[in-house]
Write a structure and sequence with these properties.
Length: 385
């Protein structure tokens, strides 16, 4: 049976040399939690522990939403992980009681490790109180799980009202041979859920990791406070955004810890999607992807690049009245429902003078640089290979 491993990184040895002052490994872990207590409380201004909350403007958008005078709907973010530490005080009132444990097939979703608690904490940290975590335990106390349980978890999430699904997990099924999870993700997207996936921490090409390499998910890699690719963070053509994931202060068991990894970058995107869903729950994944791309700040080469994708999301100047745009991401220029060689032909015809609607031309701008050029044909051909 295909297996997943959790991909946050308690980088015990590496991060000891990377300003990871509140982390130590092994028998020193209890002391590390105690040492972090003072820092965690002093940094818990307005509930924003993660430096990523402010760098992404999630705090600004949160205030705008809360001050809008609108009644805020409940938005559910399903976290498919190791569960949640129910007693952690920073998560009180922020998770639902109808989660499930697919490891033991019962309703006890208590986190026996720490990973799911950390991921959930970031989502709670970056969102308003109307956003609730739906804990779904698909990983055991060692951080191991399988694709079958993950697929079941997605269906369970959909049946229990998930608006956003966070998958901070990674497997080596690069050829998508386990179709049940493919089908579950496709079902989630068809039912207007936003599926966010961590890119992985192998220090290599994310296209070799599953489900990060799927084209119908939002794949997130990590950066540090200097907006430089995180240590061991995966990269490649499947990356959509590069978000905070290094030295992030998170709920960890009973207190707080600093942790690093793309597992912590993904829930920053999930939090952003949840805030946008708060404004309009009818928005689908492609529309939200288009909005996030619109507010992305370029970090690497101009336009899309294989290290940072579209860059860092910054919602500090978010317009609550924004109209969703169809994103450029799919490349389905001829609207056939798939991306194939005919789409590349359509772009070539457009460059040769073939008339397109404004909508079609926007889809043809594959690299997102504002115009349709031969580079878009190249980008589309890369997508097809």
């Amino acid at each position: 049976m295909k297996k997943f491993r959790l991909i946050s990184v308690l980088l015990a040895v590496i991060t000891a040399f990377a300003d990871f002052s509140c982390f130590s490994a092994g028998s020193a872990e209890r002391k590390a939690e105690y040492d972090c207590k003072t820092e965690s409380l002093s940094n818990y201004l307005l509930g924003h522990m993660s430096w990523g909350v402010k760098s992404m403007g999630l705090d600004s958008l949160q205030k705008k939403i809360e001050n809008s005078g609108k009644q805020l709907p409940e938005v559910r973010v399903a976290v498919l992980d190791t569960g949640i530490k129910k007693s952690n005080r920073y998560l009180q009132g922020r998770y639902t009681d109808d989660g499930y444990n697919f490891i033991d097939n019962n309703t006890d979703f208590e986190d026996e490790q720490y990973h799911g608690t950390e991921v959930s904490g970031i989502i709670a940290d970056g969102t308003s109180s109307n956003v609730k975590i739906l804990p779904i335990k698909v990983m055991d106390k060692n951080g191991d799980g399988n694709m079958a349980d993950t697929a079941k978890g997605i269906y369970y999430a959909l049946d229990h009202g998930a608006d956003v699904i966070n998958l901070s997990l990674s497997g080596d099924d690069k050829n998508h041979t386990y179709h049940s999870l493919d089908n579950a993700i496709a079902e989630a997207v068809s039912r207007n859920a936003v599926v966010v996936v961590a890119a992985g921490n192998q220090g290599g090409d994310a296209s070799l990791r599953y489900p990060a390499n799927k084209d119908n998910v939002i794949t997130v890699t990590s950066v540090n406070k200097n907006n430089t690719l995180g240590l061991l963070a995966n990269y490649g053509s499947v990356i959509d955004f590069a978000l905070p994931g290094m030295n992030v202060l998170v709920p960890h068991r009973s207190l707080m810890m600093l942790d690093s990894g793309t597992s912590l970058a993904a829930p920053h995107a999930a939090a952003a999607a949840a805030l946008i869903k708060t404004i309009d729950k009818s928005l689908n994944q492609e529309q939200i992807y288009g909005i996030l791309k619109h507010y992305a700040v370029d970090l690497g080469d101009e336009g899309f690049d294989d290290t940072y994708g579209w860059g860092m999301i910054d919602l500090s100047n978010f317009d609550l009245n924004i109209k969703p745009v169809t994103p450029f991401r799919t490349g389905d220029v001829n609207h056939s429902g798939t991306v194939d060689i005919n789409d590349a032909t359509a772009v070539q015809k457009y460059l040769a003078g073939f008339k397109m609607t404004e909508f079609d031309a926007s889809l043809a701008d594959i690299d997102g640089n504002g115009s349709v050029t031969v580079s878009d044909v190249t980008a589309l051909q890369r997508l097809l290979t």
